[in-house]
Amino acid sequence: MSRFFHIFIIQLNSGLNIKAPGRAVIYSQLGNNIEPLLKYVVAHEMIFDLHSHTSFSDGVLTPRELILRAIENGVDALAITDHDTVDAYRDLPAGETGIRLVAGIEFSTQWENSGIHVLGLNIDPDSDAIVAGTRFQTKARMKRALRIGEILEKKGIAGAYEGAAGLSKGGYIGRPHFAHYMVNSGQVDSVESAFKKYLGAGKAGDVRQHWADLPQIIQWIRDGNGIPVLAHPLKYKMTRTRLKRFLDRFIAEGGQGMEVVSGKQMPYQTADMAQLCEEKNLLASCGSDFHMPDKIWAELGKFAPLPGNVTPVWERF
Ligand code: AMP
Ligand code: MN
Ligand code: MN
Ligand code: MN
Fold this sequence. Notes:
This protein is α/β, with parallel strands linked by helices. The protein has helices spanning 63-72, 128-154, 160-167, 175-184, 191-199, 214-223, 240-252, 267-279, and strands spanning 5-11, 24-29, 38-45, 48-49, 77-80, 100-111, 114-121, 227-230, 257-262, 283-287. The structure holds adenosine monophosphate and manganese (II) ion (MN) (3 copies).
């Protein structure tokens, strides 16, 4: 497998700390007969964080804050993959951002009875397909929020829709907004228990039927020049047989990759996902799924490297 290295030369009198961020090694020491200021070539394996969220969906940082944090953490290439929207890409700092940005999105859909997330990586956010897709999903999200509100109302949660809408930005309402409203209004004691009782997989407020179906989502991504990648395959709690059946369907519809590393996971899980990825001939992706600094989400760039037996998705960028 080919590895991507970020190679840079340290000037000895530059005051730069030679301890480059990330997985750095001193690649070679240059001879003394060359320009004395250029002493070391330092290479570090490039860190691709291809899954992250901003305040345009359910993250807390603005695109600018997210990019600065990624740079601080030594990330070389970052994909902002907000849920069903590319609005973050219309709100980037002007000019050079100091990091390689890979345009992305995380689409919501369902397959059989499971809520599924599909990343579109290296998309053209201005393409007709992505514009049409985000428009459809935004409407779906609005209708769904009203429905979730009605359902919660029947369960005795007063004012849920208005409360969630009040916490959202620019009309984007997700389940986390409902969860925060329930905590703020004292109707549950934590976001975790809001998901556990009302919003998580299979609970009354887990409404999925409004989303576009899987073939449509994959089509939008491919027509938008992107690569469809299954997000966090371990999060769906599917049996191995069912996950394989899903992947066969995903591939048949034009899916091309899966996340082998998603945030915090155990080494055996990484090895397992890599084996599945190889077996299904998919491209491998990795990302933090960063939403905010807290105990649930991994930090930007802080996750295990992809194992050597898989083909990184960025080889196709
Ligand atoms: P939605 O896009 O409205 O379906 O909301 C899904 C989002 O809810 C996920 O992307 C997570 O950010 C968040 N979420 C899902 N499960 C949990 C949980 N158990 N605790 C906290 N946040 C969660
Ligand atoms: Mn989220
Ligand atoms: Mn997700
Ligand atoms: Mn995500």
